[in-house]
């Protein structure tokens, strides 16, 4: 069953055509530490943006491999798009912006992005 998410004001909304995840990843890199994201990774084929892209602002840094998207109105960062470590295209979902997911029930793994070269 698909799950949905959005930014705070709703100008960015999406659907992911897969079951809601039971696991998430927390990263301590410079942007993730500041945003507090809980990551879930999926494929572009399963991700469907349900709103126009005109409310999206994109931030690139470091290797510029990931487009960090956030809402130009409310500032929330519901998803990102880019190239994963395996070289394939991926979509990162910030589970803090997903609907009906019990964040306390997620199995959280950590990634030391602050020290990754």
TrEMBL record:
The source organism is Allosphingosinicella indica
Name under which the protein is recorded: Uncharacterized conserved protein
Any one GO MF term held by the record is:
carbon-sulfur lyase activity
Annotated keywords: Metal-binding, Zinc
* Domain CENP-V/GFA stretches: 3-112
InterPro entries per the record?
A: CENP-V-like (IPR052355), CENP-V/GFA (IPR006913), Mss4-like_sf (IPR011057)
Gene3D superfamilies given in the database record:
2.170.150.70
Its family remark reads: Belongs to the Gfa family.
Q: Which domain of life is it from?
A: Bacteria
């Amino acid at each position: 069953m698909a799950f949905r998410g959005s930014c705070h004001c709703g100008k960015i909304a999406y659907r992911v055509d897969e079951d809601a995840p039971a696991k998430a990843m927390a990263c301590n890199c410079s942007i993730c530490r500041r945003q507090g994201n809980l990551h879930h990774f999926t494929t572009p084929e399963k991700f469907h943006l349900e709103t126009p892209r005109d409310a999206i602002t994109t931030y690139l840094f470091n290797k510029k491999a990931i487009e960090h998207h956030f809402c130009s109105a409310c500032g929330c960062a519901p998803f990102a798009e880019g190239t994963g470590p395996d070289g394939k295209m991926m979509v990162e979902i910030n589970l803090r912006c997903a609907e009906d997911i019990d964040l306390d029930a997620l199995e959280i793994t950590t990634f030391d992005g602050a020290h990754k070269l």
